[in-house]
Design a protein that fits this description.
By secondary structure, the protein is mostly helical. The chain has four helices and no strands. Helix 2 crosses helix 3 and helix 3 crosses helix 4. It is elongated. The N and C termini lie far apart (142 Å).
């Protein structure tokens, strides 16, 4: 920009601060569990902010001096270069620490992997023995289950036979009770018939006796005798 006075060359600078904020926040999130890296990252942030401030001051001075390169601007460019070198050194330091941490984690992961493989192998062996033991136990339990089911079936058959015998006995008992009720009903009916016919016979005989003794020309008396005989016959 200083050489050409073309503001298009300022575009990377104008867009860089927004991108720097985004990258810094993401990096800070990634190293949030490492206090040492947080301190180094804060130092880096301070140098980056100084860098932006120097560039901004240099641009203001350059524009105020009619786009002329002044001694103070040359000094600010030297300061800016030293800050940039410091920023690169800080970034390199951060990267070296992350690289060492990654190597340590890889070594720990290898140890963990070996341990996991050992555990998996032991688990497979134990599982095999458990399967064999389970199969044997299952076979034994299955044989015992078959025997138990056979006994249960025999008991069920015997029980069903007993139930059928009880059902037949109950049906015969119900039939006998029905027959007894029928016989008792017949005896009661015969008793009723006998007890009703005897008084009615006496009534009919008495009516005939009275009708023969009374004069026949009495219409009302004849009607009453007829009423008595008709209802007696009905009963």
């Amino acid at each position: 920009y200083i050489i050409s006075r073309n503001k298009d060359f300022l575009e990377p600078y104008l867009n860089s601060q927004k991108r720097e904020d985004s990258i810094f926040k993401e990096t800070e999130k990634q190293v949030s569990d490492n206090p040492k890296q947080i301190l180094l990252l804060n130092d880096l942030k301070i140098n980056i902010d100084k860098k932006f401030l120097v560039i901004k001051s240099a641009l203001v001075s350059f524009n105020k001096n009619n786009l002329q390169l002044t001694p103070s601007l040359r000094d600010s460019l030297d300061i800016s270069k030293r800050l940039m070198d410091s920023i690169r050194a800080d970034i390199h330091h951060l990267q070296e620490i992350e690289r060492k941490m990654l190597q340590e984690r890889a070594a720990q992961l290898n140890k963990s992997t070996v341990a996991v493989y050992s555990i998996v192998l032991a688990s497979i062996i134990i599982s095999f023995f458990l399967v064999v033991f389970g199969f044997t136990s299952h076979q034994k339990e299955n044989d015992e289950k078959i025997k138990a089911e056979s006994k249960v079936k025999a008991y069920q058959d015997e029980l069903n036979k007993t139930i059928n015998e009880l059902r037949k006995a109950n049906e015969e008992l119900v039939l006998m009770r029905s027959q007894e009720k029928f016989d008792a009903t017949g005896r009661i009916a015969r008793t009723f018939a006998h007890e009703i016919r005897n008084p009615l016979t006496n009534i009919n005989l008495a009516t005939e006796q009275l009708s023969s003794e009374l004069p026949p020309d009495d219409e009302n008396t004849g009607f009453l005798f007829e009423l008595i005989n008709r209802n007696s016959s009905r009963i």
